Amino acid sequence: MEKLKLLLLAFFFGLSINTWAQKTEVSGVVLDEKGIPLPAANVLEKGTTNTVTTDFDGKFKFLASNKYAILIVSFIGFEDQTLKLDGSKTNYSIKLLPNTMNLEQVVVVGYGKGSRKNLTTAVSSVKADDLNNGVIADVGQLLQGKVAGLNVSSSGDPTKAASVVLRGASTLNSSQGPFYVVDGIPGVDISVIAPEDIVTIDVLKDAAATAIYGNRAANGVIMVTTKRGSKEKSQISYSNYFGFEKVSNQLDLMNADQLRSFLAKNNMSFAPENDKGADTNWQDAILRPGYANSQSHNLSMSGGGDHGNYFGSISYIDKEGVLQGNNFSRVIAHLAVEQLAFDDNLKIGVNVTNSNSLYNNVPQRNVVLQQSINHLPVSPVTNPDGSYFENFNQTGYFNPVAMINHADDDTKTNNFVGSLTTELKLPWGFTYNLNFSYQQLNSLHGEYYDSYYQQYNSGNFYNNPDPPLVKTLMNFGVNGSALRNSYQTTNTIVESFLTWEKTLGNHKIKAVGGYSWQQDVLGDGFQATNTNFPVDNISYNNLALGNYGSVSGYKVDFGDSRAYQKKRLISYFGRLNYNYKDKYLLQGSIRKDGGSVFGTNNQWGYFPSVGGAWRIDKEGFMADQKIFTDLKLRASWGKTGNSSGFNAYTAQFISGSLGTFYYNGQQVGAYGPVQAANPDLNWEVTTTGNIGVDFTVLKGILSGSVDVYNKKTSGMIYSYSVNPVLVPVGSIVANGGDMTNKGVEIALNSTPIKTKNFSWSTSLNYSNNKNEITKLTNPYFIGGDSIRRVQPDGGGQTGSTLQILKEGKPLGQFFTLQYAGKNDQGVSQYVAKDGSLTTNPQIGVDYHYAGSAQPKFLMGWNNNFTYKKFDLNIFFRGVFGNKIFNATRADLFRPSTAMSSNILVDAANESPNDLNAYKYSTRFIEDGSYIRLDNMTLGYDFGSVGKYIKKLRIYETVNNLFVITKYTGIDPEVEQGGTAPGVDSNNFYPKTRTFLFGLNVIF
């Protein structure tokens, strides 16, 4: 009997175990606090890897291991919710509540993070989903139009990075771009970051935010945060796109019939050696046939556990330029691992990125562009026998297609960034961080101009550099000419800082103090050239086969004698944040920098800042109002510096070669001073004051910020002409100028419509900036208070300059002849210095101020629409109030030379007898304002597809759909960076219109 009882007990126990273990199908919907479905919410069965993601309607369905399982439901920005199945119910409606901590958006600042609501400084943040879509491998273009006060300009050249200027130009040095910090590593080359790996970008604008980076922060700081693994889930993601590009616009040049008719009308004719009866569109001739193709692929894996996480990705991008032979490709491998130890008090992070890039450049690119618009349409690309058409009897007339196909210009780079970070939690609220980073950039560059180029030596072949550089005469040796260089740049940084965070009743204190050591070694390598090669097909790959010794007068080019540089920077820094009742906020920081690049008398600089904020919405008198849910007033002041844009040995005395002199029957090398020492060379110092308001109204429907700033740079470093009696070399790099930028920035964000099936969110940013050079002197300077510059040297324009550096005027101030129409003989006339009219103006004497290249204001307007599973993004960008000097148009407005060089269609009414028609003057200064539909993306989210695909989205993007402008050039988005903004000088790489198809998959 007892055995029977035991058997029955075992039977029923086994039955109950089997019943308990039986899997149960569970379904439901996940909603927010307003009852709106949450797509892509995560539903996880506790203690297992069993997980599912909600579809677009917030619905989910999966098999739980048993009917009493515990589910954990999570969604970014909301509190996790734990749900225990009750054993009988199989369908659930789960409502998540907002996570107040997540709503307090975290912003990355120097050596720490902070809540956006408690910031006392001006910081703009852009999340990954809001970055620009397109064939983009450049962070500048990702941010174009997205941040108030950030002026980004780019061309269609895939091998050239965009120019980025924040809150106006701050220096006369070439370095105008902001300082990048990636995952806490300062000074990272931003090209190593794959766009798909970015989580957020924080732009630090005012000095109170940037002063913690001292002498590197005068142009602003951009903090980039990349992806990390999560312990909540492991996933594999893949994204790709394929793009097709076409030139969006061309210059309206005369075709063969139009030009032939113009010459006949004016009793002119082509030279027989040029007129071969062709009708060639030379702008098309240099373009790649059909479309320029692009593709990108990104594969990432991430995950983690309770004591660590990992993220790894590999990215590949390949982008063809629209010009023949122009291509860019890059492979980026990235790995980030974090591990916790000692009861999670120690966190160790390893972050490694390696970027390998190949740039196939257009040989003599700017000359190719110039020749393509100057060439006569009656000249063919090739002769009947297949050889390239050339007319070497005409000076400066070279076949641009032949130039491309008879030369190579390639650059390979390998960029490695590695960092080791440690964070140790200590008693009493202290945290200690020790970070080490190492960056190494290796560049291998080669150029080869084959034996065909030898013919150009007799034709006055000048290069065509970007302004403000001046053209120089080129020589391509004999039987081919090769150049090869290999350089390495390394950057080593060790940073150590201690953070103390304490709450004492209503008082919150956070203090940071640290030390930074940095050493940079630049240009560690060599360069050499050779000529007289036996064959052309080896290109630049074997310089040893050349024989320069047999070519009379040829000199090997060993590169810049000052290429190698070593710089060291040592810094001490500290910051204190004080918070009283989350109502009154105060921040102060100071950094002491010591740099080897400056004079021995001024190698240390101090960069303090202070900021305060008042959260007005926290006051008692705001309790009953219904308008504001957030209202904060903030003000800040600080100093930053600039230590870039000049050589590491700029302040030191340097001797070098001064040619040769005749002595004792032979030419002997002469050596002497080539650079003057300046022991007093000091930091450029930029002081910024900022007042801002942050607000949220209408229960969160509308939020935004308004900032007003005043930024002044003093002691600008520039190479000034000096009296040779005082300084033998006739110039000295010294502090001597001041510059101001004053402006207003407005950013607005709104979600006017949000229903179950449809939503519309929009953001608008506007910025205004006024730049002015307020001082341009130093004790040695002999040039008064102005410097004429930017000399494109177009045909017949020798000595003509376009811009001036002048006290009381902005950087990019145009200074040229003032066009006054035509006189009664039909000859162009100009306003002389004394106000009279003249047909024989004097260069530099009869010049007048003629507007600024800097825009008065910038605008970006972003719109996101969703309807069920469809999403649509429309982004407009605008630049207003700037002038462009269209030197390209001037050079194509020479009717007197139309028999040897093409002209614009709208020059048809010009008389060849007017030899003044083309002179650089206000006639060719145009309004550069434009509005561009920069990006339109339509996507469809399939949600979860099958067992293994958690999310699948496909999309189509069109870039540069249209532009509204009065500018007559190829495109109004000319260079806005550097020290010669707003000049279109026969060097504009045409912008493109791109059609792109892509997908995103999460497994």
UniProtKB/TrEMBL annotation:
Residue span, TonB-dependent receptor-like beta-barrel domain: 388-961
Major localisation: membrane
Q: Does the keyword Transport apply?
A: yes
Coiled-coil residues are: none
The alphabetized UniProt keywords are:
Cell outer membrane, Membrane, Receptor, Signal, TonB box, Transmembrane, Transmembrane beta strand, Transport
Tell me which residues make up the TonB-dependent receptor plug domain: 117-221
Family in the record: Belongs to the TonB-dependent receptor family.
Protein name per UniProt = TonB-dependent receptor
Annotated organism of origin: Flavobacterium ginsenosidimutans
